[in-house]
Every structure is written in structure tokens, then in C-alpha cells.
TrEMBL record:
<dbReference type="InterPro" id="IPR013785">
    <property type="entry name" value="Aldolase_TIM"/>
</dbReference>
<dbReference type="InterPro" id="IPR043594">
    <property type="entry name" value="HMGL"/>
</dbReference>
<dbReference type="InterPro" id="IPR000891">
    <property type="entry name" value="PYR_CT"/>
</dbReference>
<dbReference type="GO" id="GO:0006552">
    <property type="term" value="P:L-leucine catabolic process"/>
</dbReference>
<dbReference type="GO" id="GO:0046951">
    <property type="term" value="P:ketone body biosynthetic process"/>
</dbReference>
<feature type="domain" description="Pyruvate carboxyltransferase">
    <location>
        <begin position="6"/>
        <end position="273"/>
    </location>
</feature>
<dbReference type="InterPro" id="IPR000138">
    <property type="entry name" value="HMG_CoA_lyase_AS"/>
</dbReference>
<keyword id="KW-0479">Metal-binding</keyword>
<comment type="pathway">
    <text>Metabolic intermediate metabolism; (S)-3-hydroxy-3-methylglutaryl-CoA degradation; acetoacetate from (S)-3-hydroxy-3-methylglutaryl-CoA: step 1/1.</text>
</comment>
<comment type="similarity">
    <text>Belongs to the HMG-CoA lyase family.</text>
</comment>
<dbReference type="Pfam" id="PF00682">
    <property type="entry name" value="HMGL-like"/>
</dbReference>
<dbReference type="GO" id="GO:0046872">
    <property type="term" value="F:metal ion binding"/>
</dbReference>
<protein>
    <recommendedName>
        <fullName>hydroxymethylglutaryl-CoA lyase</fullName>
        <ecNumber>4.1.3.4</ecNumber>
    </recommendedName>
</protein>
<keyword id="KW-0456">Lyase</keyword>
<dbReference type="GO" id="GO:0004419">
    <property type="term" value="F:hydroxymethylglutaryl-CoA lyase activity"/>
</dbReference>
């Protein structure tokens, strides 16, 4: 039988906040990570070491990394697009980084100013140096279910890039539905291809909820055998280079749905719900977690 434990990768502090127009104070980011660290979540993507000209909101990456309380059993990966980002991450004490490759040329150009091939070369250089420094690397394939500029994305391309990232030395690859266009049907098409070339235990589902499909897609991914899910507390987020994309699926909604379906996450839902309300108030946004709202009314 498949295991019933699902690992949640909380991406709110990075994917969730990167798109906020108003700079979120560093202390708020640090407090968000620290509060999340008390819920039972074991992976918290904390910030990104990308160009601050491209994503000003993550410009305080080093300060955030140095101020958070680190628990030995939690990992705090950071996003890095190139060796420059890796170097910054290592300097700031990161023990894990995440690289990202787009499955569409048009998106790669807009998000990384680079072709897919060029970005894979940068990822390769980064992974080699990361491994030499005992830094673990997670991979993302973004726009895996569709691209805001070119539309359809071929599942075979997603499978090929996922395998390339694993071959280069990533320990896990997250399949990113950056703009939330995927459905259970199109997720099945992508996972059918990808699981042919990458072990299902190495794959994660990264769903944005733009079209309201995220939970259905996650359950479909679980049926395929995936046991790693990326999500963002209060459904924070959106990608600055993906117009119209909403935030990630809310962690509260995922945890509620998983616990109600016989899965375990090790996460305290009540604590998560209060963090969702807290961070939404801090940044002046409505909390888009449905479970979060419902549980607050109780
Ligand atoms: P570029 O302009 O082509 O690169 O950007 P460059 O090498 O010419 O560098 C431009 C400037 O940035 C230079 O500074 C570099 O030194 C500096 P200047 O000489 O002009 O003063 N620079 C850096 N600074 C800090 N950290 C770095 C770094 N690299 C260069 N690492 C680049 C290329 C890759 C840098 C740029 O395109 C970039 O930073 N892109 C990141 C965009 C981004 O963060 N997008 C959001 C994350 S992806 C996402 O959200 C999807 C995901 O969630 C999955 C999903 O949803 O599917 C992961
Ligand atoms: Mg994302």
C-alpha cells in the first residue's frame, strides 16, 4: 500500500509574498516563518536569491535567512536561479536551494531572461557547486500545465525536463502549475508521462488555484502516488511574471482535505488557520483560504 503521510512544502514566505507590491517588513517575514515553524510543517521555502531588480520584494533575503529561528528538523530552502544566487544563499546559511526551469520558451524568456536550454545550463552549474558545498537542491518545472504566453505545454517536455533535473542531482522535482490552468485530466496526462522517467516518490505537485482546480488536482496527483504537495498559507501569492495567476492553493485547505481523507501531514490545522488570518491582516489582504475562513467562524 502507498504511504498515507503527505509532506507539505510551505511556500508562502517566498511564492506567497514575492508578488506583493508593498514591501512587507522583514520582521513580518521572519515572524511568518517562525510561526509556521511551530505548526509541524517540515519544509518552509523562506525567500529567494534572485535579482532584486526583478523581484524587489525578496531583496531582504539575507536578513530574513539570518533572523529566522531554525529548527534542526525543518528545512528552509530558498529559490536561486544561478550561481550568484546560490553563493548568496550559502553566505546567508541556506542548506537547501530550489532551481526553476520553465517548460515553455516564452515563459523562460520572461521569468529568467533565458532559453530553456540556457536555464538548464545555469541550473547544472548551480547544482554542481551546491553539491560540492553540501547544499541540497530541489527542482521546479514551471508552466508544466500551461503557459500564459504560449498556451499548451507538451507533457513530454515536462517529463524530459524533470528527468534532466533529477539526472543533474536534484533530490525532488516539483511540477508547477504556475498559472493554475491544470485540471485533473491534464494533470493525469503530465503525471503519466513524468512518472515513466522519474520515480513518483521524487515528485511534488505545486498548484496555483486560479481556476479553482487545485484541490481536485492534488487528489488526482495523490491517486498517481505523489506524496509531496506545495501550498501557501492563506493562499498567498501569484507570480510576478505570470499575469493573472492567483496564489498557491491554501495550506489550510490542503491540510483540511487531506486529514479528512485519511492522510496525515503532522500539521496542526488550528495553528495554521490562525497564522493565515494573522498574515492576511499584516499585509492587508483578504484570507482566501476557504477552510481558514470557515474555521474562524466557529
Ligand atoms: P538578467 O537581467 O538576464 O541577468 O536576469 P544578468 O546576469 O544580466 O543580471 C542582471 C543584474 O542582476 C546584474 O546586476 C546581476 O549582478 C544581478 P547589475 O550588474 O545590473 O547591477 N543578479 C543577481 N542579483 C542577485 N541575485 C542573483 C542575481 N543574478 C543576477 N541571483 C535573472 C537573469 C535570472 C537574474 C533574473 O531573470 C531573475 O532574477 N529572475 C527571477 C525571477 C523570479 O524570481 N520569478 C519568480 C520565481 S519563479 C516562480 O514563482 C514559479 C514557481 O513558484 C513554480 C511555479 O509556480 O510553477 C517556482
Ligand atoms: Mg509558484
Amino acid at each position: 500500500a502507498l504511504p498515507n503521510f503527505v509532506k507539505i512544502v510551505e511556500v508562502g514566505p517566498r511564492d506567497g509574498l514575492q508578488n506583493e507590491k508593498q514591501l512587507v517588513p522583514t520582521e513580518t517575514k521572519v515572524e511568518l516563518v517562525n510561526r509556521l515553524g511551530k505548526t509541524g510543517i517540515k519544509v518552509i521555502e523562506t525567500t529567494s536569491f534572485v535579482s532584486p531588480k526583478w523581484v524587489p520584494q525578496m531583496g531582504d533575503n539575507k536578513q530574513v535567512m539570518q533572523a529566522i529561528d531554525r529548527h534542526p528538523d525543518i528545512s528552509y530552502p530558498v529559490l536561486a536561479p544561478n550561481v550568484r544566487g546560490l553563493d548568496g544563499a550559502i553566505e546567508a546559511g541556506a542548506e537547501e536551494v530550489a532551481v526553476f526551469i520553465a517548460a515553455s520558451e516564452a515563459f523562460s524568456k520572461r521569468n529568467l531572461n533565458c532559453t530553456i536550454k540556457g536555464s538548464m545550463e545555469k541550473a547544472s552549474e548551480l547544482i554542481t557547486k551546491a553539491k560540492a558545498n553540501n547544499v541540497r537542491v530541489r527542482g521546479y518545472v514551471s508552466c508544466a500545465l500551461g503557459c500564459p504566453f504560449q498556451g499548451h505545454v507538451d507533457p513530454a517536455v515536462v517529463a524530459g525536463l524533470s528527468k534532466d533535473l533529477m539526472d543533474l542531482g536534484c533530490y525532488e522535482v516539483s511540477i508547477g502549475d504556475t498559472i493554475g490552468v491544470g485540471t485533473p485530466g491534464s494533470w493525469s496526462a503530465v503525471l503519466d508521462e513524468t512518472t515513466k522517467v522519474v520515480g513518483v516518490e521524487k515528485l511534488a505537485a505545486h498548484c496555483h488555484d486560479t481556476y479553482g482546480q487545485a484541490l481536485a488536482n492534488i487528489h488526482r496527483a495523490l491517486e498517481h502516488g505523489l506524496r509531496v504537495v506545495d501550498s501557501s498559507v492563506a493562499g498567498l501569492g501569484g507570480c510576478p511574471y505570470a499575469p493573472g495567476a492567483t496564489g498557491n492553493v491554501a495550506t489550510e485547505d490542503v491540510v483540511y482535505s487531506l486529514h479528512g481523507s485519511g492522510y496525515q501531514t503532522g500539521i496542526d490545522l488550528d495553528k495554521l488557520v490562525s497564522i493565515g488570518h494573522w498574515i492576511s491582516a499584516q499585509i492587508g489582504r483578504p484570507n482566501v483560504s476557504r477552510a481558514g475562513k470557515a474555521l474562524q467562524l466557529k
